[in-house]
Amino acid sequence: MKKVKFGIIGVGRLGYEHACNLAARIPAAELVAVCDGNLERAKEVAEDLGVSAVYDDPAKMCADPEVEAVAIVTNTNSHLEMIRIAMEAGKHVFCEKPLASTVAECKEVEKIVEAHPEQIFMLGFMRRYDYSYEVAKKKIENGDIGDLVLVRCYSQDPRSIIEGTLEYAPRSGGQFIDMSIHDMDLIRWITGCNPSKVWAIGGCYEFPQYADWDDGDNVGCLMQMENNVMAFFYAGRTAAHGSAVETEILGTKGMLRIGSTPTDSLVQVFSENGVCQECYQDFLTRWHYAYIREMEVYCDAVLNHVQPTPNVYDGTDSNRIAELCKESFIKNELLKFE
Amino acid sequence: MKKVKFGIIGVGRLGYEHACNLAARIPAAELVAVCDGNLERAKEVAEDLGVSAVYDDPAKMCADPEVEAVAIVTNTNSHLEMIRIAMEAGKHVFCEKPLASTVAECKEVEKIVEAHPEQIFMLGFMRRYDYSYEVAKKKIENGDIGDLVLVRCYSQDPRSIIEGTLEYAPRSGGQFIDMSIHDMDLIRWITGCNPSKVWAIGGCYEFPQYADWDDGDNVGCLMQMENNVMAFFYAGRTAAHGSAVETEILGTKGMLRIGSTPTDSLVQVFSENGVCQECYQDFLTRWHYAYIREMEVYCDAVLNHVQPTPNVYDGTDSNRIAELCKESFIKNELLKFE
Amino acid sequence: MKKVKFGIIGVGRLGYEHACNLAARIPAAELVAVCDGNLERAKEVAEDLGVSAVYDDPAKMCADPEVEAVAIVTNTNSHLEMIRIAMEAGKHVFCEKPLASTVAECKEVEKIVEAHPEQIFMLGFMRRYDYSYEVAKKKIENGDIGDLVLVRCYSQDPRSIIEGTLEYAPRSGGQFIDMSIHDMDLIRWITGCNPSKVWAIGGCYEFPQYADWDDGDNVGCLMQMENNVMAFFYAGRTAAHGSAVETEILGTKGMLRIGSTPTDSLVQVFSENGVCQECYQDFLTRWHYAYIREMEVYCDAVLNHVQPTPNVYDGTDSNRIAELCKESFIKNELLKFE
Amino acid sequence: MKKVKFGIIGVGRLGYEHACNLAARIPAAELVAVCDGNLERAKEVAEDLGVSAVYDDPAKMCADPEVEAVAIVTNTNSHLEMIRIAMEAGKHVFCEKPLASTVAECKEVEKIVEAHPEQIFMLGFMRRYDYSYEVAKKKIENGDIGDLVLVRCYSQDPRSIIEGTLEYAPRSGGQFIDMSIHDMDLIRWITGCNPSKVWAIGGCYEFPQYADWDDGDNVGCLMQMENNVMAFFYAGRTAAHGSAVETEILGTKGMLRIGSTPTDSLVQVFSENGVCQECYQDFLTRWHYAYIREMEVYCDAVLNHVQPTPNVYDGTDSNRIAELCKESFIKNELLKFE
């Protein structure tokens, strides 16, 4: 039973989740090194997971010959630098989304990845590896819903976490580049192409501070895809019911909806409120198994030496779309892609 | 467009609903006379509905040559007497459920009805005429679910109306003879037979006063039908979510559920409570169209001179089962039917 | 019990539905005259509903002193002419949607209606009077979902009736002016304003003949409303599951969805296909009670001498939006309203 | 990071699932030995999971000093013998349900377990550790649904696997002792007591061969619990929709339903069949995480040296109830427990 030996860079909330998965939930993975700018945090996680090698310098971890693959779960701003370090040290790289902060940076990442064709690179758009999305994709490919007509994607963060969101917002990239970029990846994955035109609107419906960052607390965008499929996405920060991601794929012969009732259990509650299904409050709960599954796929790719998807170009294109949407939102104009 | 001319006896809450239906919602019906022990109430309803003939004496109303058919919506205790008066006056009779207070009285009603074979008699178990039940019945008859295995019937009154229920309980017949009798009719209608054995349990889970009337606030009963189909019914007075009637028909090739989410609208509410569908609080709302539909069927029967169902024998059998269940409940014994 | 005496012009499929409602399902209405260009059809309906006055000339029916109000259920092309005839004959007028074929015609209707301020005029956008929509509107007005962010409206015709649709399409006004106009009315009703900008896309995903009429078999449109609420509507002719109208109202504190599962019964079917709810195949089934309810509202308005909504200006604005959307669709451009 | 070293006895379908979990999905577990009567199978599984110690003799595996805990996943008939061997070798024991084939055997197991109080014993009723059941249990304990009134439990195997079921049926213990025993455990767990009376019915609705084993293809049972809560369970082998386990807990202030729509994804399919959610076909899919979770709990118990539940007495009581239900079913009599 061959295992891929991982070092992880960045063990904040999501990084810790990946670290746990690599340490104990993925048969083909082994976590051998933990790196975090905060050395205390790195030590704590390493001890918790039984890992002996601890670093606060990514370059040093990447010099560790024990490490075969590097999982990058740092701030988006540092992705380019981390990818460069790991790739140049000869490591396979798994990098969390988005690929980088700007399209210009994405292009640099492309060059680095292209310079190391033998090393396996994968970008962490985990929604593609959620079981429900896998089920839906198979039905689409099987022709169950005919030809594609419309893809609708909603991403909502719960109001209950708005404080944290507001604090994080200025450096996160905002609705388009941080949040909706998941939906851009999904739309590209489902339709197989890029948009030809986009028009993004929305604004600050409750939290005026988003305007300071050229952003809105709720935004929406209509896209005409190159193959004329319609795509509408919406991203909001004020969902009462929870952490909700819904995707609809409407075809000429049927329709699929994923996550319309974003529940994490099979419990129905009959009460004064009627018949209710309670919702996720937390994206880590929603995507727990998708994070595991994508890493299983990545380990398979490393062990079998094939390049998996989403790849570096998927990452660049999602960033390109996101930047265009943001520009459309700021100008309130219909813009062409390319 | 031939219409059946109705007199109604009893215009309390449900009687008023029937009166409105006869007056203005059923093309083949016309309301020509209103009778109520409370003459003021009768006058008020008659004026509201544009009816000129008003009575406080059922015998006098039944002597009115204008009246062709009589709708009886009085207390169960008086059904026998009202049916006798109307039938002997030569009128067609529609009588609300249950047929009578006791099996002995039911037997007397049978004789009266049998003595007037030209007059059309129908008992008001309206659930049979609810659209959802009609859809389900057709699927069963069509063989969609194979052979019957289990019928499960729940009838729940909302906690919100418990005060009224408690006041009415002592003279209502209780869970078995007033409430579950609807389910006995449904079970007989669906399975086409009577039970062979019954065992009823339950008790006072919150309102001890039910024990004073040899009753419980929540009761349940397992029945083995003559054709070996299993039937389980439950009746409760403390439903948080509303006025809930659920029926499940489980067959060897499929299953149908009616009313599992007892909502009256197509609205989903996404809120802090999750994704909810609000429920009926009121049986008249739930069964509004079933009450209209059963009366349309009755008018058709009168105009075409055929005897509809549920008939007088259906009424007697449901009372017989209800009495047996109550006896089983009191003795906590398994009892045979017949 | 005062009743409004109606004459109806046009007793095709929907006209017959209105005729039945006026004749027997609405306490405050009475149907006294039937008019149809096809005299045989008019006679047949009149006989069926027990109406003695029959016409094939609308002007003659409008001269009938017995008639107080006229229900117009003819082709959209003739609405202007029918409204003129009825209004000038001193009758109250209920007219089916859309108000007219073009904005220019709508403006002429406005003048006619303004010239007869004592006569009650109402436009038949029945969705506003559907029970589920009434429930949702109350919740919005009650502040349950906070401030409005996004309204999403889907209108789908079932594939099963595509043949009839294709035949009717060339003279119907198409997706925007015939079908989506319902959603334009809903969006205006919910948001309380008109759009400021629209961009419509879509096309012929399966039936190329729609292109001959400058139309698509599936179209979508993003609108920015004057109050900055986002609105997205979609209209399609190829729904596998049935006649589906879904409306979502997303606010800063909650979300409502109407008709996400467009079923007409409370039956769940458990079969090889999973757990299913069957859908409406027919718009008359879906909106049966909305058609009754809007006419009840109209009768109330006539009896109380108040002008109800939707009014003539609502009608014009919906046509204006529809024309703009169609122009945007043809040009594939973002267009301003006004 | 301390790990419990496991040997597993029996690596058939469910045993293999447990083996995979112990090998790679549970941080606190390590699989160090595999034993199966079929040595080839044991070798195959061991190789697949990277385990070096392989046995076909349970006694020899239990003599392996490397093994700390033994997971028993053999035929029910051999549970007593396996538990004896493992316990007497000083190992901790996790045993799949049911505890044994007969109450008499269960009593012997009790003696063995009592003789080794320092060794941790747990019985594998995994449903208690399913996330949805955990959510429901917390709500009950929190008082959200008031006092318990009724527990309803359905266990259904899909028709699609009936061939395998029929082959396995004669030696499985049948509906009561193999299948419904899960529900007996759930009912005991939820109500906190045993039944006082039971009446079981049902029969062969499609597969007459079950009668040869004093069993039915579909059976049901009403139980009156010692605390007067009502409990109804149903077990069937002919479910069209899939592998369905539903549990309802009805209280005086609310109701919970678990698994009413037994789906494993968040996908809704809109098609000619209506709006559908597809169901599990396979119990291993349904309970995948419950099997992991129960083993996590067991490892915690071993590491912290506490005795977890369900314990050996839970096992005996469920077998006692199952035997009584089977006797009631055969005699068609109401029987007392004790």
Characterization of the model:
4 copies of one chain form a homotetramer. Chain A is 38% helix and 27% strand. The relative contact order of chain A is 0.16. Chain A folds into 2 domains: 4-119, NAD(P)-binding Rossmann-like Domain (Rossmann fold), CATH 3.40.50.720; 128-282 and 318-336, Dihydrodipicolinate Reductase, domain 2. In chain A, strand 9 and strand 10 form a beta hairpin. The model of chain A has no long low-confidence stretch (mean pLDDT 96). Chain A is globular and about 50 Å long. By secondary structure, chain A is an alpha/beta fold. Chain A binds chain C through residues 145-150, 159, 197, 199, 201-203, 205-206, 218, 220-222, 224, 228, 230, 232, 234, 236, 238-241, 250, 252-255, 260, 332-334, and chain C through 145-150, 159, 197, 199, 201-203, 205-206, 218, 220-222, 224, 228, 230, 232, 234, 236, 238-241, 250, 252-255, 260, 332-334.
How is this structure best summarized?
The structure is a homotetramer of 338-residue chains. Chain A has helices at 13-25, 39-49, 58-63, 79-88, 103-114, 131-141, 162-168, 174-179, 181-191, 283-286, 288-304, 312-331, and strands spanning 4-9, 29-35, 53-55, 69-72, 92-96, 121-124, 148-158, 195-203, 218-225, 230-239, 244-251, 255-258, 267-271, 274-277, 335-336.
- How many separate structural domains of chain A? 2
What pair of chains forms the biggest interface? A-C, 37 and 37 residues
| Uncertain segments of chain A | none
CATH topology of the largest domain in chain A: Dihydrodipicolinate Reductase, domain 2
Radius of gyration of chain A, whole Å: 20 Å
C-alpha end-to-end distance of chain A: 47 Å
Helix content of chain A: 25-40%
CATH superfamily of the largest domain in chain A: Dihydrodipicolinate Reductase, domain 2
Give the helix/strand class of chain A.
alpha/beta
| Main sheet attributes: strand count, strand direction, barrel closure of chain A | 7 strands, mixed
